[in-house]
Amino acid sequence: MRHSNKKKMIAKRALSVRTSPSPRSRDEDWDAEARTLLARVNVQRDDNRESYRHVDCIYRHPTTHAKLFVGNLMAARNVRLLEAENIFRVVNTQDVSSANFFEDDARFAYRRFPVSRWREAPDMGTAAGVLRFFEEGCHAWIAEQLQAGNNVLVHCLAGAHRAGTTGVSFMMREGRFTVETAIRLAKSLRPVIDPIGSLRDLLGRLARAYAAAGNPALPMASGWERAEDESPPS
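Above: the chain's sequence. Below: its structure in token form.
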């Protein structure tokens, strides 16, 4: 009797293994979903990309086709690279003491957005304060430049944490993505993007602020991502 029960348990385990989705099928589901979602921000993944670039495009305007890039300090100080990508509008997310390298060049326009200092901004415990921090800080300026047909670079030191967070926030704005979706999509376009620590908290506040303002993330077409808590900021 005991031997019979053991055989049934082994068969049950085998059935469970056979019927659960394989890692490969989950990857394929993500690939299909990513292509659909990236269409919201008018870009495509480059599956043949190098492991690291100084700049990567994470958004393209739907009518002017101007691009939003996330990049590093090497890109920000390399005028030939900027010229090659037709980038003359720059958001510097480092501290205000950092250099804007081509301020004396009339072709360039800069916007400072020291995103890591977000806790010092007023009313960051409210939805209105979070939205104001992003809109007045950089979102409205980026949107205006893209609408005018100007490519924009958002940079920090590595183009990973501060610039990455800022780029993710703009993807949330334009694509109406959840935090997790926007980060995952951004990383598929620039793998080093990694909002960490308080920057991840900031993006969560932004998601909740959008929801509180009546502009929540759009529902997913498939169930690969967990639902997020989008209650108003406290």
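Residues 9-27, 226-234 have pLDDT under 50 and may be disordered.
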